[in-house]
Amino acid sequence: MGVVTMSELKPSISGKRSFRPSSSTRHVTEWPISDVSSDLTIDVGATSFALHKFPLVSKSGRIRRMLMEAKDSKSIRLNLQNLPGGSEAFELAAKFCYGLTIEINLTNVAKLRCTSHFLEMTEEYADKNLESRTETFLKETVLPNITNSITVLQHCESLLPVSEEINLVGRIVTAIANNACKEQLTCGLSKLESNYPAKPVLQSESENWWGKSLTGLGLEFFKRVLTGVKTKGLKQDMIARILMNYAHNSLQGLFLTDVESQKKHRMIVEVIVSLLPTQSRKSTVPMAFLSSLLKSSIMASTSTACRSDLERRIGLQLDQAILEDILIPVTSNGNNHGQLYDTDSIFRIFSIFLNLDEDDDDVDLMRDESEMVYDFDTPSSPKQSSIMKVSKLLDCFLAEIAIDSNLSASKFIALAELLPDHARLVTDGLYRAVDIFLKVHLNLKDSERYRLCKTIDCQKLSQEACSHAAQNERLPVQMAVQVLYFEQIRLRNAMNGGHNHLFFGSLNSHFPQRSSSGAGSGCISPRDNYASVRRENRELKLEVTRMRMRLTDLEKDHVSMKQELVKSHPANKLFKSLTKKLGKLNTLFKFKDVKGFESRPNSENRFLFQKRRRNSIA
């Protein structure tokens, strides 16, 4: 709209302000001459305006009513408390009352609309009054455009509660939601008309994307806008980008130095989490963003429901995570006894991922048809592929937290035992983590050391890991012997040119392959699998018996060699060392018997010499 120049409000000697128009405007407006004293003083906050009754009464119903109620008709002073927009808004309204054309723009339209409502500047008192002028600007310029609507909505926050009373906020929020969905539909139609361009430009990648403007809104208004666009059907990936953009601008640089800043941080995180798209294995929310929210949630001490929601979301798509995503620092107010990382949250997250099939039937219905053609226990299935990714992630996490001297062995073992046996095809990563833990925690009890090593399936160690474990003095002697034993069987099968059913047969039983016709003819029945396990156990018993016989012969030779060496070379340190090591083996194998293997499943049979019986193996 056009602007008619007008003199500034110049302060008088008394500190009041009176209108003094420039000479260029006197001939076009009915303006009182400068020496005419004002008959009305209006106070707005700390500012006083020296005005005249007639221009204001002709367009403002509120001022007219106040003057009628005034007792002193000669010198009247009115106080407009709680006027929305303050003295700046009233100055514009007063100029309008004096017949000057004011500029209505995105910055002041909300202010003028609320002021016109407060002063009752409606059509009842004058044609084309200020209220109708502002309404015209809103309908023609603000509401049809998303960015303009967001700009005006920002100014509405300082005009509460009047902006809510006149439904200005609600109208703008509804307009944003409607226009956002229209824009989404228009963008989709344009892609169809252009025959699917190779690389379409996303709306969020545009410099003028309206979603970036939402960062200027307060938390409550932002929540109302996001709720509105979600209700209208805005795509979840767009909602996720809006939330990420808002969180980045709101939480960045926010230091939790006092109670107020921590409260603000907590409110922002909880609102953003409540606005996240629906939980799903194929959520459009990036894992890195969920991880950052969880770290912020723990730091700001948000509600348990908020943290649980984030943990479940991360657990649903854990196969997309990297190590940095699950390294969650422990806060000072936590109960982790000086730990570096929050292992309790990680334990719950991995448990959620492993229990998806049991308690998340609705998610199973969302699988793609491409997934349904697989047997979900086969190594090539999407499910098994995800489990293997998660197993590698867990082993990397264990290796990272193993250097924490304050981490208890029980928590480390609980994490190591989370995954099922078939999740790890190779246990080198777990062996590395256990070795680091043993190296850092030198004062472990023998029982804890034994339980740690029990988590490692020696049958799945690579040749390099076996070689390292056989010479690793930090491992219990039982495990070193077990590694050597399995390595001997592996070499024997390799020399015979056959396949080691002991090592790979049990794995294949976990992953039965589906035939091309879809029938289960290629699967091994549970009865056949059980018979195979029993056969393997019998072979193991025979091998242990042979080893005992050989050790008995070695013990006899050892005694005779020791006697001869002591007589001939009493100070030979080399043979003393050899005697000491052979003594350890002698102590190891002086047991009554080995418990039968058929009484427990093969997955639990990780140590051959766990329990002993008095009866013979035969």
Structural features, described:
The protein is mostly helical. Helix content is 55%, strand content 3%. It has helices spanning 23-26, 53-57, 61-69, 86-97, 109-118, 130-142, 146-156, 162-165, 168-193, 219-232, 236-251, 259-274, 287-299, 304-316, 323-326, 343-354, 356-359, 361-364, 369-372, 382-401, 409-416, 428-440, 446-454, 463-470, 477-496, 501-510, 526-568, 573-588, and strands at 10-11, 17-18, 40-44, 47-51, 76-79. A hairpin with a 2-residue loop joins strand 3 (40-44) and strand 4. It is elongated and about 135 Å long.
- Count, helices: 28
Helix share of residues? 55-70%
Based on Cα principal axes, name the global outline: elongated
What class would the helix/strand composition place it in? mainly alpha
Q: What is the tally of beta strands?
A: 5
What spatial order of strands do you see in the largest sheet?
1-2-4-3-5
Major sheet? 5 strands, mixed
- Mean pLDDT rating: 75
Rg calculated over all Cα atoms = 40 Å
Amino- and carboxy-terminal Cα gap: 105 Å
Region (Disordered): 1-23
Keywords: Coiled coil, Phosphoprotein, Ubl conjugation pathway
Coiled coil: 530-557
Domain BTB: 38-106
